[in-house]
Design goal:
By secondary structure, the chain is mainly β. The chain contains 1 helix and 10 strands, in the order H-E-E-E-E-E-E-E-E-E-E.
Length: about 150
């Protein structure tokens, strides 16, 4: 009987430890830029904080409201802003924050199935190397939240 109790306690401890490790990613400021009626793409942005002691990697993303989601990077090359797809994912270092924002790293929703209207809430599934699949709710805005209207 004591062996069975000890075994049960060890299993519960292992399960608890695993779930805590998976909860080391914190998401904030998740938003998508509102689109025109016939837009072929939409940008999505957020902050991913890794509060754990081990690095992770954002591998991919998906949503029901677009044909596909790609991870992109924008950077200035000389006098020209260039955008490219990141196919090997983005590192989320231990104890650090990865910020996806306009003009930098971002998620690109390809071929949205409908216009994205201000105030809508959109679910995007993020796939991480260690933490696995995480569902994040993004809110649609005309511009970055906190910015004053023109």
């Amino acid at each position: 009987m004591p062996f069975r109790l000890l075994s049960t306690m060890l299993i519960m401890l292992a399960l608890t430890s695993g779930s805590q490790a998976a909860d080391t990613l914190q998401f904030s400021n998740a938003w998508i830029r509102a689109t025109a009626p016939n837009a072929q793409v939409a940008g999505a942005f957020l902050r991913i904080e890794n509060t754990g002691s081990k690095p992770d990697r954002l591998l991919s993303a998906s949503t029901d409201i677009a044909e596909r989601v790609e991870i992109h990077e924008m950077k200035l090359s000389g006098d020209v802003m260039q955008m490219r797809e990141i196919t090997d994912g983005l590192a989320v270092p231990a104890g650090q924050t990865l910020t996806l924002k306009p003009g930098s790293y971002h998620l690109m929703l390809i071929a949205p199935k409908q216009p994205l209207l201000e105030g809508q809430k959109i679910n995007i599934e993020l796939m991480f190397e260690t933490a696995g699949r995480k569902s994040v709710v993004f809110e649609v805005h005309r511009q970055a939240p906190g910015m004053n209207s023109p």
